[in-house]
C-alpha cells in the first residue's frame, strides 16, 4: 500500500513538472510565432505602394505601440513616437508628391530571427534590396514588443552605411543645391530656416562639413539630406533639423553619448507576467 502511494506521488510529481516545462515551452513558441508574424508583416509593409499609404495614414497598421521609440544608427535616434515611426517608412519609400528618394526598398529578406528567453524581444538580421541600383543593405536590429505584441522599441545598426551610400566628392555641389532647393520649398513660413537659397547653399558649403553616411546624425550636409526627406512628410518636426542649428538631430555627438540613452528595449513585456 505504502509503495503504491509512493509510486502515485512520483507519477504526480513527474507529470506536474512535465506539464510545467511543456506549458512554458508552448507559451514561448506561441508568443514567438506571433512576434515573428509581426516582423514579417512589418517587412511586407515596406514594399513600394504599401509604405507610402502607411506614412500618409491611408492604411492603418496594427504593428506599433503609440509609445514607439527607436534608433537606426548611423542615421539617427528617434525618441518621439511619430519620428520613430516616420523613420521606418520615410527614408526608403517613394511617396507621391514628395521629394524623390534616391534608394527605395524593392524587397526584403528576414535572414535571422532569434527570441529572448525572458522578454518579448527578438534579434533580427534583415536584408533590404534597394532600387534602382540593386543594392543589398543589411540591418541588424533588436525589436521590443509590449504586452499586446505591439512593436514599442527598436535598436538597429546598418552594415557599411558609408561604403554603400557615400557618393564621389564631385557630386557634393549639385547635391547641396538640390537639398537647399528642397529646404526652401518645404520649410516655409514658421518652418523657414534660411532667408534665401544662396544663404542655404553658402551655409552647407562653407559652414559645415559635407560628412559621410557613416555619421549620418552629426552636424553635416549628409545628415540634412536625410532629414529633408523626413521634412517633406512632417515639416513641423524636421525643418529645424535641416536648419543651421541642426535642431538636436543634425548636431555633433560624441561616441560616448550613445550610451547615455540606449535602453530602447525597456518597454519589452516580461514573459510569464500577466
Ligand atoms: C498621421 O497620423 C499621425 C497621428 O495621428 C499624425 O501625427 C501625423 O501627422 C499624420 N501624418 C500625416 C502625413 O498626415
Ligand atoms: C541583384 O543583386 C542580387 C544580390 O547581389 C543578385 O543575386 C541579383 O542577380 C541582382 N539582380 C539584378 C537584376 O541585377
Ligand atoms: C532625445 O531626448 C532627449 C531628452 O529627452 C533630448 O535631449 C535629445 O535631444 C533627444 N534626441 C533627439 C535626437 O531628438
Ligand atoms: C562638428 O564636427 C565636425 C567634425 O566632424 C567639425 O568640422 C565641426 O566644426 C563640428 N561642428 C560644430 C558645430 O561643433
From TrEMBL:
- The source's superkingdom equals Eukaryota
**Residues of the signal sequence?**
1-19
Keywords (A to Z) from UniProt? Signal
Q: What is this protein called?
A: Transmembrane protein
Q: Which organism is it from?
A: Didymodactylos carnosus
Taxonomically, what lineage is the organism?
Eukaryota, Metazoa, Spiralia, Gnathifera, Rotifera
